[in-house]
Amino acid sequence: MAKPLQDLAANGVAVWLDDLSRTRIQSGTLARSVEQGDFVGITTNPTIFAKAIGAGSGYEDQIRDLALRGTAIGETLRLLTAWDVRAACDILRPAFDKSSGRDGRVSIEVDPRLAQDGDRTAAEARGLWWLVDRPNLFIKIPATLAGLPAITAALADGISVNVTLIFSVDRYKAVFEAYMAGLEQRLAKGGRLDGIESVASFFVSRVDTEIDRRLAESGHEDARRLRGQAGIANSRLAYELYEQMLTSQRWKALAAKGARPQRLLWASTGVKDKSFPDTLYVTELVAPDTVNTMPEATLHAVADHGEIRGDTIRGSYAAAHAVMYGLRRVGIDIAEVTKLLEEQGVAAFTKSWDELIGAVTEKIEAAGAEVMPAGAVKPASSNGQKATPAAGAPHHAR
Q1: Quick check: 67 pLDDT over 60?
Q2: Is 253 exposed, middle or buried (CB count within 10 Å of its CB: 0-12, 13-18, 19+)?
Q3: Range of the structural domain that residue 136 is part of
Q4: Catalytic residue ranges
Q5: Considering the entire predicted model, what is its pTM?
Q6: CATH number of the domain to which 86 belongs
Q7: Helices (DSSP H) in the chain: which residue ranges?
Q8: Which of 205, 260, 273, 369 registers the highest number of CB atoms within 10 A of its CB?
Q9: Helix (H, G, I), strand (E, B) or coil at 15
Q10: What is the per-residue pLDDT across 238-263, written as a single tens digit (0 to 9) for each?
């Protein structure tokens, strides 16, 4: 384990990997990285799976079997991604046990096309939780207004949730309140809180990308000074709110009954502007009880030359507020920006889901099998062939 990664852990930052593929699982690369302590959790999203399944190998037999069984394309995607996530959960189980359930988590996202339908999102969350069937799973639910009730409902059912696509401090506050509401409802139903975890995925680099574009167009004399500061300032103010929320009587009542805080997870931490240090969104967001999920390139950069200077969040709140004031002063509407980013995030993941459908469809057709639309049922074969093994398991897993 590289020293910068050790330093992050010593300062309370859990390092997670923002990537997963069947090749990574089957080659043993994932297991070796976990054994070395490179990271203690994994996040996925539709874009990651679109890349893994579309361009990767190891899925062909399972895709063909599912097609031969007449499995609809939507269920095929669930089974393919659930297999990878379940396998990753098993590999990360030692980290889960060692951390008493805080880390060793693997996230799988609900169908992003349901982001504006809370009831269907909650139903999807329950289905994925049952399908993967591992205690160290996180179900990712987007922090849209429609998604907030689904977050509460899932937690009330005892499902651990990774709340994704959070861009604003105000929305993060609503997410934390949805978290507390879910725990309260679970207690009211006679349920227990042990084993329930949640993280709030606060996106960083996308904020800078959009705001820096607007700063460049503004022509304001302060624009250059503010460039590259919005994402970090916004994230630090979310952590300030986190600390404030933990002092509330409502939270203290839940903590007394065994609830654990919903940690902030820094997402979108790959640096998109190459003029910035490639470790920027890691070294500048160090604080206790946080998670930083990194693309592989960012993880390697941090391990190679990251300079961890201790806590870089607490004590920076006044400066962060000053940055946000400066942005408003030059005409940047933060609320409008974060609303746009949420819409773009949902649209991007929906596009990736559609691309994933296309990639799997191509693989089914390449195998000479029939693509079954949602809701269709394949007629039984009359050629006397035996049914394929259940659950769509790949051949090597039977």
Answers
A1: yes
A2: middle
A3: 3-204+257-311+347-364
A4: 140
A5: 0.92
A6: 3.20.20.70
A7: 3-10, 22-26, 29-36, 46-55, 60-68, 73-91, 93-98, 118-132, 147-156, 169-188, 205-218, 223-226, 230-245, 249-255, 280-283, 296-305, 317-329, 334-366
A8: 205
A9: strand
A10: 999 999 999 999 999 999 999 999 99
